[in-house]
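--- STAGE predict ---
source: upstream dedup step, 1 unique chain passed
mode: sequence only
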Amino acid sequence: GPAEGAAAGAGDGDFSRMMPDLIAELLKQPSVADPLSFLRTLRVSGGRVRVDDRRLNLVWRAPFADIELRRDAKGLGGEMILKVDWRGRQMSLLALLDYSRESRQMDIVARFTDLPPEVIATLAPGLGGVGGLTMPFAGSVSVTVGLDGVLSGLDFDIRGGAGEFASRDYFKQPVAVRSLRAAGQVRDGGR
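--- STAGE serialize ---
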């Protein structure tokens, strides 16, 4: 039967450059000509991850990462636990993923804590006003995306605790905020 493989993160090991190749191997159909195609499970424990997002022109790092990817009959599944460093601020991220070979779609569910508002303002420039909040966020985001990068679904539920909102466009002084919650969904590219 297919072999199980594991990769453990070494102290200074950065697996970022090799992860796309390993994911591609897990997506291949097993073939005697390609021994790595028999890999069923890949685990990285205590590794580091660096993501260079050229579309958004930003780099972010996770100095601690536990990642497990599993091949199954339908495609690829897995989970990641990351401690992310965003411009000197720490946040926690748990991501679950499920890729279907048949639909060529990946479902990703991310749960996070201690997310600085400026992360949302950077990732979604249309929500730049969020950067005026001083509270960290917790919540979840679920996306369905094709291998071509086309987003077909997005659900979000984000909560913030006590803090302040500063916007010189609307207020002379920062305004106290007791709590905040935003939830919604987008389907088929925004329609």
